Amino acid sequence: MCSHNQEWWNFGASLLTALATLAVVIVALFKDEIRNYLFPVLLKINLKNDTGELTKVDFNQPDASIGGVTHQSIDARYYHLIVRNESNQRTANQTQVFLKKVDELGPGGKFVSMWEGEVPMEWEHQSIYPLARNIGQPISCDLCSVLKPGVLRLHPIIMPNNLKATYNTETVIRLIFQAKCDEGVSKMFKIQIAWDGKWNDGDIEMKKHLIIEELT
Hints:
2 domains; 7-stranded antiparallel β-sheet; 6-stranded antiparallel β-sheet
């Protein structure tokens, strides 16, 4: 009887050892998937604000009178998206925000698809940051800017030939964005920009000329 019990005991111990070894192997092979399932990265995009930030833009312009270029500085108002990682457990690694689609208001009040693809947007102050960033705390990226006296520009890092990113007259456009990182993606984020083609220096006054709103 004792021998029989010992055999069962040995079998149980061997089974537990085998299961433990299997568990170790599974964790080693699928640790990233398990971690993402238990503690997912939660990327979310929002409009930072609808007022924008008044600033200066410096650029060089060819000047034939001096046979070179002249330095100019003009007023501009920049608008931003903000990317949050709502997970307290994880960092969103190698994150970028992508423009996915552009629709423009056409005749008859209907929106027409003007461009569809995937192009990364600039981070705020992109020149001092890498193209892909790790997100723990919220980070801003450029959405668009309006230059005085009146030019609206989108701010993708690269410019596909068929993507219109500069508007000189009044327009209404709808844009779809998505944030992506090594651990996952955000939900699609849709925003509408309505601009009457005009400029004003004041925050409140400018909001009458350019209206940005999130769409559900």
